[in-house]
């Protein structure tokens, strides 16, 4: 076993030990471990990427845990570079403030606050804000831009310090974080420690319903330890002194769940969305291991379709590039076996990734100007959840005769 990784033997939500592996993906390096040219000769460690189903509570999860310092301390993903996410977070902040009548001047704490994009929306609405994020450079940059951010992992002790210094929080948020943490019980302990009696905890996670229905297997990578559905979350939160009061579906990341919880016995009624979500999950069979074994067969079929298409084009001398280097591209490239022999380079709009090479495969990441310079025949949209805006923004490529390939949810040539 690597010194940077261990495999747990119990469900991280209920502690159960009756676990079945339902999907084995190709082992990969950490999905965001982009490499500068100077480090191309250094080997990159790959870690298992196996998905397990808990028969006791129906939670779906990775049991292989990579050291979070390896994953997050030099993080390169920032939400503020995506106009789609900036709009999403603005609507999110507006909704929470209106739905729960959060008074101006209230404290809002964001766990895993990244570059402070969400907190800046709350700050504009007159809230006091506090970010927490272990990515040191991103945290320092957010603080410099007026969003106070503690560069650390969220713990009950840190939560208590914030409460002492700033008072109780009316709102605690955690976006695409509640799936990233091995010790979820510790996170909930921290939320209880900082949350006001009538406060709400709002979290967004990739939703297992969407992962299943849209074959979003590439959202499975080492940062995402948990693939949440509502049934196991109700039980988990109740066992930890909290109550799920809303389970709302939102569009981000190809389909996410926005959960809202309060302290047990809090003032807010439980919305109909919770029962509706449970009914949908049961109808889809997400409480049965067999459902995910079928899902694994669907993924193999997509792999065959895309592989045949790209290898056929390559054999005809076509130049193929990728568009978008999100974390999930690492899973897709590895599991579908698409290396630099197939994809010549990848375009990404983030200056933090340009000039680097993809994790493990070492495909170069270039700015958008490379499309005109290198003239690929096809662009595989690896950030497929943004396929529409990407294709609209690069209409010139299509007008010049180029074609887009969207790999998921269905393989499509546009």
UniProtKB/TrEMBL annotation:
Pfam hit, one: Methyltransf_14
Top-rank taxon, per record: Bacteria
Residue span, C-methyltransferase domain: 252-409
First and last residue of the signal peptide: 1-33
Domain Methyltransferase putative zinc binding: 11-72
InterPro entries referenced in this protein's UniProt entry, alphabetically: Methyltransf_Zn-bd_dom_put (IPR013630), Methyltransf_Zn-bd_dom_put_sf (IPR038576), MeTrfase_14 (IPR013691), SAM-dependent_MTases_sf (IPR029063)
Gene3D superfamilies assigned: 6.10.250.3100, Methyltransferase, zinc-binding domain (6.20.50.110), NAD(P)-binding Rossmann-like Domain (3.40.50.720), Vaccinia Virus protein VP39 (3.40.50.150)
Keywords: Signal
Protein name: SAM-dependent methyltransferase
């Amino acid at each position: 076993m690597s010194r940077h990784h261990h495999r747990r033997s119990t469900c991280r939500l209920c502690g159960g030990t009756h676990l079945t592996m339902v999907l084995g993906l190709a082992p990969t390096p950490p999905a965001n471990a982009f490499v500068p040219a100077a480090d191309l000769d250094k080997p990159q460690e790959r870690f298992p990427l196996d998905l397990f189903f808990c028969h006791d509570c129906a939670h779906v999860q990775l049991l292989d845990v990579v050291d979070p310092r390896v994953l997050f301390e030099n993080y390169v993903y920032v939400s503020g570079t995506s106009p789609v996410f900036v709009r999403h977070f603005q609507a999110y902040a507006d909704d929470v403030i209106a739905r729960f009548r959060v008074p101006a001047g209230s404290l809002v704490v964001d766990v895993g606050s990244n570059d402070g994009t969400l907190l800046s929306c709350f700050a504009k609405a007159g809230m006091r804000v506090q970010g927490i994020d272990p990515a040191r450079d991103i945290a320092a940059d957010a603080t410099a831009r007026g969003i106070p951010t503690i560069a650390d992992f969220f713990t009950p002790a840190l939560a208590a310090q914030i409460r002492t210094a700033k008072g109780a929080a009316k709102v605690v948020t955690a976006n695409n974080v509640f799936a990233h943490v091995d010790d979820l019980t510790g996170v909930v302990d921290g939320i209880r420690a900082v949350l006001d009696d009538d406060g709400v905890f709002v979290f967004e996670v990739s939703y297992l319903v969407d992962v299943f229905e849209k074959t979003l297997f590439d959202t499975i990578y080492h940062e995402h330890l948990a693939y949440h559905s509502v049934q196991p979350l109700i039980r988990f939160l109740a066992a930890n002194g909290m109550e799920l009061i809303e389970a709302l579906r939102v569009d981000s990341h190809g389909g996410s769940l926005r959960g809202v919880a309060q302290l047990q016995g809090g003032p807010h009624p439980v919305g109909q969305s919770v029962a509706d979500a449970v009914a949908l999950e049961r109808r889809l069979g997400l409480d049965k291991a067999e459902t995910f074994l079928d899902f694994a067969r669907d993924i193999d079929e997509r792999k065959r379709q895309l592989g045949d298409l790209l290898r056929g084009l390559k054999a005809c001398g076509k130049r193929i590039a990728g568009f978008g280097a999100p974390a999930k591209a690492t899973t897709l490239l590895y599991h579908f076996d698409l290396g630099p022999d197939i994809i010549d380079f990848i375009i990404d709009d983030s200056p933090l990734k340009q000039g680097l090479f993809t994790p493990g495969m070492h495909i170069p990441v270039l700015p958008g100007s490379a499309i005109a310079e290198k003239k690929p025949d096809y662009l595989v949209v690896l950030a497929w959840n943004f396929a529409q805006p990407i294709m609209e923004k690069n209409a010139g490529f299509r007008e010049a005769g180029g074609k887009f390939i969207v790999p998921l949810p269905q393989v499509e040539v546009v």
